[in-house]
Structures are given as structure tokens and as C-alpha cells.
Amino acid sequence: MNQDYIKPDNWSIIEEGFDVERVKSSESLFSIGNGAMGQRANFEETYSGETFQGSYIAGIYYPDKTKVGWWKNGYPKYFAKVLNAPNWIGIDVKINEENLDLNTCTEVKNFRRELNMKEGWYNRSFEATLKNGTEIAVNIRRFLSLDLDETGIIKYEITPLNKDAKIVYKPYIDAGVTNEDANWDEKFWEPLEVKKGANEAFVTAQTFKTHFKVTTFMHNTIFANGENVNISPSTIDSTTDKVQFTYGTIIAKGQTSSIQKIGGYTVSLNHENTLAAAEKTIKAAVNLGYDALLQNQIDAWSKIWEMSDITIDGDVKAQQGIRFNIFQLNQTYLGKDSRLNIGPKGFTGEKYGGSTYWDTEAYCIPFYMATKDQQVARNLLTYRFNQLDKAIENAKDNLGFKNGAALYPMVTMNGEECHNEWEITHEEIHRNGAIAFAIYNYYRFTGDYSYIPEKGLEVLIGIARFWHQRASFSKEKNQYVILGVTGPNEYENNINNNFYTNYIAKWCIDYAAEQINKVALEYPADHKRVLEKVKLSANEIQEWKKVADDMYFPISKELGIYLQQDGFLDKDLVPVKDLDRSQRPINQKWSWDRVLRSPYIKQADVLQCFYFFEDHFSKEELERNFDFYESFTVHESSLSPCVHSIQAAHLDKMDMAYTFYLRTSRLDLDDYNKEVEEGCHITSMAGTWMSIVEGFGGMRVKNDQLHFSPKIPKEWKGYSFKINFRNQILKVAVNHNETTFTVDGDQDLTIVVNGKPEIAGKFAQIN
């Protein structure tokens, strides 16, 4: 049974009622971020119950030394940790000498959380009875400013209900934090300096090893019934890594006392003097004031939603799900900084480590290309170009490859591999293919070819060289094979000839060769520069092509399908529908040995190939492979339901497509995989967007034109979305009677609908 406590709402994530068993899950679901930093929805006041404390800063990490029982040559030296950053939200509260702690209150009622996605704020309210009998009503609103993206704001209000109250606020900032996830239980932060002012304080600390310097700051103002009482702290306590102020107030029954706390981080990635930058940031925020900061937040999110929103009419849970996914994607990455990327947990948790997986190229780039300016997607491609030297070093030092062959890391912060599972690090090499595919996909969608001669061609050459050297010639098969890999299905390790891996290897070589020829014709100066730099000859390209032209692909002629890998049909092929529900999820119930010997598939593997290269196969081939492999897929990867939803819609299996859509859109809200307390699945959320736009909307790009084949689930009355296609904004609205296409501006846009060319904005397609 999945969790079912989030209240359906079109624009908000809402929890009602306090349950200690839900605290960690809600800390993930109600997380907030602004692209530069983020935090789990931890309580500001003391909480003695079970909690997962987490605040995070984009680009800040620690190289935690790899910990394994048996060291193997080639293991990465460290596993990069997304660091729990210093805590700026803390506000200890005492009421009539009693600590406010929801875990020890004699009663908590009318507890409510709301994450308002439309306006970009998080609110928590409750009534509580303390052990000393004092009854209070509390309301807290918190947001991370999109405009001043180093700044967060808290408004914490307390109203005594049954007696007058002495309320003591003890706001603090604390760099003495630890990670939930650490290999050696080390401290990651070294305190450097503490500075205290009248109502503001600063703690500067730096990370060990990587030496990122961060100044954590706070500024506090105390109010009574909305009026600034202009008091200074009665005491100031400090250590080398923490500063805490104490403010004492008396408030009458029924009146409201509050503290407004401004806090956040300035980091050495962006400032030479982080302390001076923090002082400047506080000044800017104080000058604006709470009301203006909140209004600016609402306006900034309005602009984001204007382009990225997807509306669904008649299905509140489906609507809530897609907006939650779009909201979290925009909280995590806004495309401002090409040094940053999209971490699998974003700012909601620490699991997986690293900031970049193949998820970015395979799933996220389409969302950012279509809902933002193309420069955002180009920044994501540039991120990989900037790390090409590290990818070449990785292939050379860990695999013994030569001549500029590049293996991009499975997980990275700075270009170095930082994933310490052998089967992933050295065998899940298909990530190279996703990076090359993203270059192709970017050009296909935007029409901007300039990236390839300027930067992309070098990446394509390094990847082609990798596949050429990674393949080996089989005399028995008289073809080239790729041995000892892990495909997208991570429930298979160290297998031979994974179909998806072999296919994308061939495609990468062919595509690199095509682009070399195209650049030679159209950008001869860049062609000469790149080939001289990488020392590439025509003879070497011919050697690549031998591998691509004679690549082996496992097939079953009897079943008419491509085999996931050699020997797949030797397994005990019991479909998932016949697997006892008590055994699910198998990754939490079975030994790894049992998982590996089973036919069960974590996520799209062969079908991932059909997703990327749909035009290479017939619809009949897709249907045969879909029907076979989906029956063995347990969907225990967050990346799985979206691909299956898109393909089910293409095959007119609309009930199945809708079911998969709900699973991908509400994966975390309903906790399908029973792990949301560890954080949300951010990168797969872009797949949710694709499941509507590419699945139900049927959007494809072919021959420089947008193609659509719109369909609508029977559960919906209608849906709509926008696409920024080559700087023209197209709105698509679908209901059961018709589909309308509207273009912003006066310029016509020719699109293809169900195979027929049309002028967008001048017609409605009858469904």
C-alpha cells in the first residue's frame, strides 16, 4: 500500500494532522530551493523526534574517501558527498520556561503544512499544549528568494491561547553539522571565523579538502502584533562554529508575537570575500523588507509558471503530480550557472552523492530546452565539454585506454568519477551514449548547430574513441561485441552484449563520423582546429566505422525481439504479475544474488533504445518488445514509468499509459518505492513532463518541424502545455473534441499533426 496522506490540490502540497511516522517523508516532500541552495522541511524549533536534518548549497561537496571491504584497482578514490550545509533556520523557542518541542507536547492539533507551488513558499501551522499547560497557536512561513538567491526568509508567529506568555526566541546559525550519509563519520566543515552584530551574526567555515568557503548569516527582528519592538538580544552565546541570540518578550493572551529571520549563505564559488558579501546581502534583504521579498517571490514564480505550467482538467491528483514535478525541477536548477547541474535528489536529500548522472542528458535536457531559453540547455552541454579532459583521464587511468578516448563518469561533481560501486563505475558505460545523444537532441530541437563545431565535436570524438577501444572482435560471431557491462537495468551486472549499450555505441560512432564530415564542409576552420588538437586521421575514423558497421546485436528470431543481453532467455521467465506482492520491492526483500538471477528489470533497457531511436524501428517491433519486456519490469527505478508511459501512449495502450503517468508523477507524493524519506527523485521528474508532452501530446521533432499525435486519457477533460521551439512559443490544448495549437506573436509556425502539415494558430484539429 502506498502512502496516501497528501491532500489533493491543484496548486499546493498539503498535509493535515501531526504524525511522527510521517516527519521524515514530509521533510522531503515539502523541501524548498532556489537553484543556488535548498533545504529539507525541517522544523525551525527543537524537535527531539526522528528527523533527517539537511540544508544544501549548489556546487559544494566533499570527497569522502571510498570505503569498501575489498579494494579493486580502478576504484574511484572518493565518493563525492552532497554536503549538509550549516544550519541557518534554527530558532529554539521557550514559552513560560518550557521548550517548544512537538515530540514532547501533551497535545498537537490542527497541524497543517502547505507547500504553495504557485507562489513558492512553505507554511506550517499548529496548535499545541505544552507540558506546563500553556496553549499556543503557531504559524511559520519560509521561502528561499529567487531574486536574492543567497537569501532565505522565515516569519515565525506565536499566539498564546489560554494565558499570557513569556516567549523567548533563541535564533542561531550553526556550522557544527554532520551528514546523514558519510563513509567514515567525519566532520566536513572547519570553522574559521565568527562575527556578531546587534541583530545579525556570521559564521564562516570551509570544507576540509575541497576548501569551499561559506559564510552563513542571520538577521533577526522581533514583532508584537505586527509592530517592530526594536529590541536587541539579551544574551549572545557563541562558540567557534555557532552563534545564538536570546530575545525575551511578554505577550498577552490572544496577541501575536513573531520573529522574522533572514538567513542564508555566501560562497567562495561566487565571492572573494564571503563575509563582506553576506553583509551586503543582509542589507539588500532588510531594505526590501518581508512583504516586498514575498511579493517578488510570487512574481518570480509567476514568470516561471507562465512558460512551464501544464494544466490538467478533471483530475486533481494528476494535476498536483505534474506541478509538483515541475516545481521541484525549477527549485533545483534554473540554468543560470554552467558550473552547476541537476542532482538526482536536488536539495531534498544526500543519497547517491554527486551532482550529475546520465539522467541530465537522457531526461532533463528536453524539459529545459522546451520550457526555457535554449541557453539553459546549452549550459548543460557546456558542463560536459568543460569536463572532457577529466573524462579522458578517467578512461586512461582506470581502463588503460589511450589516444584521447573519453569515459564520462557515472557520478561526478567536478568531472572526476566519484561513484564507488564497481558494477556502476566501470560497467554502466552507456552513460557515454546519453551524453552524445544530448548533443544530437539539442541540435534537433533548437536548430543551433554552432555548439557542435565550437565544443560538441571534441566530445563526440572522445566518446567514439572510447567505443572503438571498448568493443572487441569475436571470431566465433565474426562481429564486434561489448563484454562485461551493466545496462540501464541495474538488476543485471557484468553481462555481455547489452542490446542498448551495443546499439548506442554503434550510433555514437556513426554520428561522430557524420558530424566530422558536416563540420568539414560547413565550418572548415573549426574542423582544422579540432582535428589538429585531437590528432584525428581519416584512417582512425575508418577503424571506428569497422566496429560500428559490424556490431553484434542479440536477438530472438522466434519471439521477434531484441534480447536485453546474451542469455536473457535462459532465465526463469516468470512475469511480474505472477510475483507475490509481499516480495516487492525486490531490491528491499531479496538478496542481490537472487535479483541478478531473476528476469526482473529495474527500468527501461531495450525499451530505452526504442525511446531514443524510435524512428529506427517499426511500430510493430516496438509493440513486440514492449509487450515482452514490460511484463518483467518491476519499475523500481524512478526513471522507469515515464518511458513506459510514453511508449504505451504511442501504442494506443492508454489505460497503461495513464497508470504509468500517475506512477511517475506521484512517485514521491505517494511513495511508490517506499524511500521518499531519503529525498525526492528530482531528475526523473523531467520524465513526468515528457510523459505528457511526448506521451499524450505525441510531440516529436522530425526534419526541423514539430510533429504531434495528440491523445487524451479518459480520466481527463483536457490538458495543455507550452513549448519554446526555436524561439517561438506554441501552446497546445487538448480535449476530447479537439486539439488547438496557438503561437505567440505574428509569425506562422508550420507543424505536422497526425501526419498532416498545418499552420499553428489558424486551426483546431478535430480529435
UniProtKB/TrEMBL annotation:
Record domain Glycoside hydrolase family 65 C-terminal: where: 699-757
Domain Glycoside hydrolase family 65 central catalytic: 323-690
Residue stretches in coiled coil: none
Domain (Glycoside hydrolase family 65 N-terminal): residue spans on this chain: 14-268
Record-linked Pfam families: Glyco_hydro_65C, Glyco_hydro_65m, Glyco_hydro_65N
Gene Ontology molecular function: any one: hydrolase activity
Keywords from the UniProt entry: Hydrolase
Family listed: Belongs to the glycosyl hydrolase 65 family.
Protein name as annotated: Family 65 glycosyl hydrolase
